[in-house]
Here is the input.
Amino acid sequence: MPILIAPDTRILVQGMTGRAGSFYTRLAMEYGTGDTGGYVAGVTPGKGGTTHLGLPVFGTVAEAVTETSPTASIVMAPAPVAAAAMLEAIEAAIPTLVCVTERVPVLDMVRVRDALRGGRTALVGPNSQGILIPGARKLGVMSTADAAPGGIGIAARSASLTSEVVARLSASGLGQSTTVGVGGDPIHGIGFAECLALFRDDPDTEAVVLIGELGGVQEEEAADFLAAEPYGKPVVALLVGRHAPEDRRMGHAGTVSVLGSGSIAQKTALLESTGVRIAATPDDVVRALGS
Amino acid sequence: MYLHEAHAKDLLARYGVPLPEGHVARSPQEAADHATTLGGPVAVKALIHAGGRGLAGGVRIAHTPDEARSHAAAMLGTDLVTAQTRSRGETVHEVYVERALRFPRSFYLSLIIDQRRAVPTLLAAAEGGTDLEENAAAAPAMIQKYPLAADGSHNPAALAAFLDMLGVPDGHAGAVLAVVESLVRAFVDSDATLIEVNPLALMEDGTATAIDAKVILDGNALFRHPDLAALGDTARADATELLAQANEINFVKMDGEIGLVVNGAGLGLATHDMVIEAGGRPANFMDIRTMATADQIATGIGLLLDDPGVRVLLVNVHGGGMTTCDRISDALALAMEGRDRSLPIIFRVAGQNAQEARDAATALPVPCIIPGDMTEAVRLAVAEVARCPS
Here is the structure.
């Protein structure tokens, strides 16, 4: 059993008709099981009533919900309108919402987080590669060539490192239950702690790999969660950015340390104290899982 | 985007924050003229896009116009290195000449976004000053947090009680509260990620004045603020970094010999770690973004080929989505066309179209090694630099 989505999840795409939206929606439709890979409709304001990639396009999420009953949505809309798209999906109570858009303004994400409080939507992202159930559903833009079904749950701040780790796991006969890209931004939806809780309650997940980096508070929140009670499953953390200069933004907005939080040394010590096994490089994750 | 002090103060003035009178000077004579106009002692401050100036000689008091002239002359055109600049510092092109005030007490105020709670948050301390960061590291409790609502709204009575608890003297309570209200409006309106006033001077007459101000704006929100975007902070960024940015590549220039060609921020950080731990020195950090075309990637690789310090290229790419591995080999070929200089390549790729890319890379007219895994790739790159010392 996967987390956040299921093999029968019905998927809506917000921002399907653009260049990136079309490209990634086509790949995801081909990947998932069923005729359209689980994809049921698109939403693009002003393009309601048209058809794209063989799917109906609606002008609003509310109309798409009435007509096609999606249980998840993926936002690929451009950054200036990504928050509005997320807010619309939250308003429509879409259970699982992924946002892959990069460079969403941080105060927009503050408003989105405010809208999520007390609601029924779980947000993954923004700046996320999405959620993958190998062989069943692709709610995202990640590489799928090396993914295989199995018992390892992955939660990651980085898409490229997830692909690397997935390739090594699959080559060693370790398939994946679900991979979740929690995203590289400082303010985001669910994080490592929420993913750990979901993977713990998932009978098909046997072990968890966290892929973290410097900056932010996700690793610290994961350590708090793991310290509260015994987890019962092995957890490995791959942490990168040990030698990154602290004041420079290294690709992800989340990697700038604010007020001294977030060095790899601090994160490593906290996670190790809760029994997490640390992998220093992608080449090291399989060994850490087996040790 | 970091605003230097003069720009930061211009922004805060629009929201009614009281400030000492000051003017920008581009020459020692201009600094002396401003000092004459202001009368009395002035502070001469280096305008750079980083903090820590006070402890690095970037803020000096002048009692006469002549002294202001000599302070400005000592700063203008030099590279000021502070704890917050990079190692080579930042060139001082302008100074700020400001009336120097005497004040019996100071306060510290800043606004940030609390990552755990995802709300704007006020940080405050009863003592401001240049040594605040050190003092706070030793005694974190001296800085207290007050969370605001997502839109910056708050209960004024509760906020006043918070400031009172911190020890704002009764006579200054109204003035400090008014500054906080102004900072909150400026923060939300201009999509800031940090506004800091340190110190906030509590004056004898019950007013409060922002002696120094730091503003960092969200670079991702500048599309909403063309006026602020035009202020720019290009002095802080390297020209190569800006060119890369315009080509969908996140690039950070470093001083080493191993040129990194990597996609994704996480893989970029991992590669950087592995090179350093293997005893090598990266020439750069690179994160090729998903949307980058072969031409754009070639521009990024060109930055490495044109850097005389780079002696080997280490490609470490996981292909998928729009960034297929053969797009990288195409970009390598494009970058080498029309350049006299070529470099040996360690070409480690995995994922979509990896084999096509390896075939194309080995056909390039330069030495190209295909390693087994990432660890071997890094080891080979470090060995290549050691084999041919410059």
